[in-house]
User: Which sequence fits this backbone?
């Protein structure tokens, strides 16, 4: 979430342009979702102009990514921490609220939320990958284990979170999608909804470029090359949506490509 101060102040940073692009790649379905909420669309009245940008990288199906993309920013705006200006705590609380809604859906409507998942992608944050030593330790301490599938360590569905992982009855859940865990008697959340957050202060004499991508893009290039390419296209006068679409399309040209999603945002300080 970005803070965009009012245009009347001397230190204003304004959202100059923003746009999203997606490509399905070689996957059967597009399971990613993009959310762009401009200041005039933000679902809460504040003294500041706020911009909400997020990519939800779905897997198993697009159900959870779709659910989160439509609700998370609304949940955020209703958090008591949000009203106090504590946006970090509000983001954490909103993610917990979204998890709770998915759990209710699992209990009352369908088992699909338990076998479908999503991440919220921001490259300024730290990747929560199962093979990361600290994350592996947390998973194993909770009673789970990290296994490799086709050379990739994967976790990320509601079935890996309490209280769903405490029950032995997985209903109509396919056998190949059921939880594989250690024999630990005490289970915690094998997958955490606790986000890594960071804060950046934008200056009124600067110009800024924010690029948010799913792993269908980031796995195909490195950060430096990606930003340099986006800057080159921006200097040619391309709009943010055009740049984002080119990034997504180019990321899916090779065989066995993943869903690719990209959001490009350009921000200018009034004195830049």
Assistant:
């Amino acid at each position: 979430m970005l803070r965009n101060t009012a245009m009347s102040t001397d230190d204003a940073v304004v959202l100059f342009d923003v746009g999203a692009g997606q490509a399905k790649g070689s996957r059967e379905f597009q399971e990613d979702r993009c959310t762009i909420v401009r200041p005039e669309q933000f679902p809460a009245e504040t003294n500041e102009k706020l911009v909400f940008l997020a990519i939800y990288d779905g897997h198993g199906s697009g159900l959870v990514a779709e659910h989160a993309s439509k609700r998370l920013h609304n949940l955020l705006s209703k958090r008591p921490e949000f009203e106090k200006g504590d946006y970090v705590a509000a983001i954490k609380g909103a993610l917990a609220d979204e998890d709770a809604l998915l759990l209710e859906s699992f209990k009352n409507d369908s088992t699909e939320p338990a076998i479908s998942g999503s991440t919220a992608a921001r490259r300024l944050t730290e990747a929560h990958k199962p093979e990361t030593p600290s994350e592996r330790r947390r998973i194993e301490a909770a009673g789970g284990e990290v296994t490799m599938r086709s050379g990739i360590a994967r976790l990320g569905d509601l079935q890996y979170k309490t209280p769903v992982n405490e029950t032995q009855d997985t209903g109509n859940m396919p056998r190949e999608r059921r939880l594989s865990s250690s024999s630990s008697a005490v289970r915690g959340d094998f997958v955490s909804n606790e986000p890594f957050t960071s804060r950046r202060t934008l200056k009124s004499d600067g110009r800024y470029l924010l690029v948010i991508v799913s792993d269908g893009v980031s796995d195909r290039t490195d950060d430096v090359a990606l930003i340099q390419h986006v800057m080159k296209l921006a200097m040619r006068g391309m709009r943010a949506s055009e740049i984002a679409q080119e990034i997504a399309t180019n990321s899916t040209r090779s065989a066995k490509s993943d869903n690719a999603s990209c959001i490009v945002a350009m921000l200018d300080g009034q004195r830049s």
